[in-house]
Amino acid sequence: MRQPHFRLLCAAAVIAPLAACGGSDDGLPQLSAATPAALLSCTDLASKISYANTAITAAELVPTGSLKVAGKDVPEHCRLTGRMFQRVSPVDGQSYAIGFEMRLPRNWNGRFFYQANGGIDGSVVTATGVIGGAGWLDNALNKGFAVLSSDAGHGRPAPFFGLDPQARLDYGYQAVGKLTPMAKSAIQTAYGKVPDRSYIGGCSNGGRHAMVAAARYADQYDGVMAGDPGTRLPLAAIANIAGAQGYASLATTPSDPATGFTQTERTLVSRAVLAKCDALDGAIDGMVQNNAACQAAFDLDRDVPTCSGARDGSCLSAAQKTTIDGLFKGARTSTGTKFYTSFPYDAGLNTNDWANWKFRNSLNLDSGAVGFIWQVPPESPSGFNGPSFTLTGNVDSMLAKVQATNATFTESALSFMLPPDYGNLPVLKNRGAKLMVYHGTSDPIFSSDDTVAWYETLRRNNGNAASDFARLYLVPGMNHCVGGPSTDQFDMLEALVGWVERGHAPDSVIASARGPGNPGGANADVPADWSANRTRPLCAYPQVAQYKGTGSLEDAANFSCR
Questions:
Q1: CA-to-CA distance for 556 and 545, rounded, in angstroms?
Q2: What string of H, E and C letters represents the secondary structure of 21-70?
Q3: Catalytic residue among 443, 450, 491, 525
Q4: Chain segment 215-259, per-residue pLDDT in tens
Q5: Distance CA 3, CA 185 (A)
Q6: Alpha-carbon distance values, 122 to 91, 98, 153 (Å)
Q7: Can you tell me the distance from the alpha carbon of 181 to that of 87, in angstroms, rounded to the nearest whole number?
Q8: d(CA 162, CA 411)
Q9: Which residues pair with 232 in a beta bridge?
Q10: How many helices (H) and strands (E) does the chain have?
Q11: 307: Cβ–Cβ under 8 A, 6 or more apart, which residues?
C-alpha cells in the first residue's frame, strides 16, 4: 500500500534543537534537559503571533485556580485560541478549519506537550495534557508544560466530516504536521525561545495520533506516550462490527447483541479466567499479571460449564462457546482470513465499559466511522441507520472499501490512518527520542494483543534491542484507557521525561487503584476486597509483576518485574 508523506510547512517552521550530552550506554544520543523560562506577554499575543494560514482568535490570562486537577489549583497561565487553514470544502460545501487552544504557563519548564485527543476528535478539549492512565492527580500544564489541544481539522464530533477528503487527511495525520511547527513558533513569541523538548501523548485515537507522530514526525518530538493505541483503527472498528454480528447471532433479543453474552455470563467467564490464571504471578489477588501464560492456560470450552439445557447464567451454550471463542481469537472474513488480532481473556470482561464498546458503540460509533470517515466511497447520510449498518452490513465489503481510493479520495483509510513503517521507527531511534506505550489487557476495542504483536515486530527489526528507545507496559485488567479491575492511575509522562532528558530507562512505572475517596475520582470496577489505594508495578514488556512471596498484596514494593 502506498504510504504518503506529508511535508511540514517549512517556511516558518521552528524545530527544537537536538542538543546532546554525549551518548547513552546503548550508543544512542542522549538528549539534554529542558531549561525553564518565564512568559513574556499574554494578552497582546494575538497581535504578536504571525504564522502562515493561522488566525489567533483570542489571548487571555487565566488566573491561578481557574482550573484544578485532583482538587489542586493549576497555576496562572495564558490561553490562546485560534484556527488554521480555514476553508470551504468543494466536496460537501461545509466550512472547515483546524481549531486549537494553547495554554502557556507563567512559569514554563521549557517543554511543549501536544495533547492528542480521542474518538473522532471534532472539539477542542481543554489543553491540560494527559499524563497516562486515568483519574489524573496531575497534568502536563500543572507540571509547567506549554500544552496544545485541537479538533484535528473539523469542528463537529460527528463522522460526516468524512465526506470531505482533506478533513479525512487532517484527522488521520496532517493536523499534527500543521499544528506542531505553528505551536513551536507561538511558543517562541511567548517565551523568547522555542521549546527545548517536545512531547506528544494521548490514549485511544489519541494513542494512534501519538504513534503516527512517532512514525511521521519523529524529527519534531523527543518523547511519545501512546495509551491503548488504536493503531489499526479502521480494522479494529470493522472487527468490532463483526463482533456485534456474532453476538447478535446468539442474542435472545435480536436487535440487542448484549443478550448474546450477558453480564452474568461474562462474570462467569471472568471468574473462570481468574480461577485458572490468578495464581500464575504468585499471588491470588484478583489480577492476571502474566497475560501470556494465562492465554496458554485458559480454555473457554474446557474451563466454563456447557449448558445441557437453557441458558441460566451458570453455563454457556455450545453455540456461545464456538462464536465467542472465535471472536476472541480474531475477526475473520467470510473466507476465514483473519484481519484483526486476537483479544486476551482477562478479568475485566464483565464491566460496563467492556459491554459499552462491544454491544453499543459497535452500533452507534463504529458504524458512522466506518461508513463515513473510512469507506471509499462513503455512505450517503440520507437515511443512514448505524445499528442497521452494523448488524446487516457486509464485513468483506467494508474491508474492501477502507482500502479503496478514487478520484476524490486519493488516499485510502489504511494509508492515512495507520502509521507508516511503525515496526521500525529509525528516525525516532537514531535521534535519541523515546516512546512509551501502555495498554490495558481488558481493552474491548483495541486489543493489547495487537500492540504486543507490533512491539515484537519492533524488537525483531531492531536486533531485539527495541527497549533502548521504545517500551511497552501492559496494564492488567484495565479496560479501554480507564477502569476495569485494575491499577489504572499512573504518571507515565514523568517517567518519559526522565528517560528522554536524563537517560533513566523506566523498567517499571508504579500504578495505583482508584478506590473510594481517590482524589482523582473513584473507579467503580475496583473490587471491594482490594485496598482503596492498591499499587502495582507496570513492568516493561516482556517482564511481568511477580509476587516476592512475603508482604502485603496491596503494596507494589512486594512485587518485582521478571
A1: 9
A2: EEECCCCCEEECCCCCEECCCCCCHHHHCCCCCEEEEEEEEECCCCCEEC
A3: 443
A4: 999 999 999 999 999 999 999 999 999 999 999 999 999 899 999
A5: 28
A6: 19, 9, 7
A7: 20
A8: 12
A9: none
A10: 19, 19
A11: 315, 316, 317, 318
d(Cα 470, Cα 75) in Å, to the nearest integer? 32
CA distances to 177, 200, 272 from 263, in Å: 43, 37, 14
> Which residues on adjacent β-strands are paired with residue 338?
332
Q: Which of 149, 150, 198, 204 is catalytic?
A: 204
Grid-cell match 489504511, residue found: 414
Judge whether 154 counts as a catalytic residue: no
CA distance 181 to 559: 43
DSSP tag of 337 = -
d(CA 355, CA 442): 11
Whether 243 contacts 453, CB under 8 Å:
no
Provide CATH 3.40.50.1820 ranges for the chain.
20-232+419-495
d(CA 363, CA 229): 21
State the Cα–Cα distance between residues 416 and 173, nearest whole angstrom: 7
Q: Exposed (0-12), middle (13-18) or buried (19+): which is 367, by Cβ within 10 Å?
A: buried
Verify whether residue 525 is a known catalytic residue: no
Q: In 348-366, which positions are buried (b, 16+ CB within 10 angstroms) versus exposed (e)?
A: bbbbebbbbbbbbbbbebb
Residues written for the chain: 562
* pLDDT, tens digit, 9 for 90 and up, residues 4-40: 332 233 333 333 334 444 566 678 999 999 999 999 9
Concerning whether 209 is annotated as a catalytic residue, the answer is no
* Alpha carbons 354 and 375: distance in angstroms, whole number: 26
- Which among 480, 488, 491, 508 is annotated as catalytic? 480
Return the residue matching grid coordinates 511535508.
7
> pTM for the whole thing?
0.94
Fold of 20-232+419-495: Rossmann fold (3.40.50)
* Cα 321 off chain centre by: 30
CA atoms of 208 and 257, how far apart (whole Å):
28
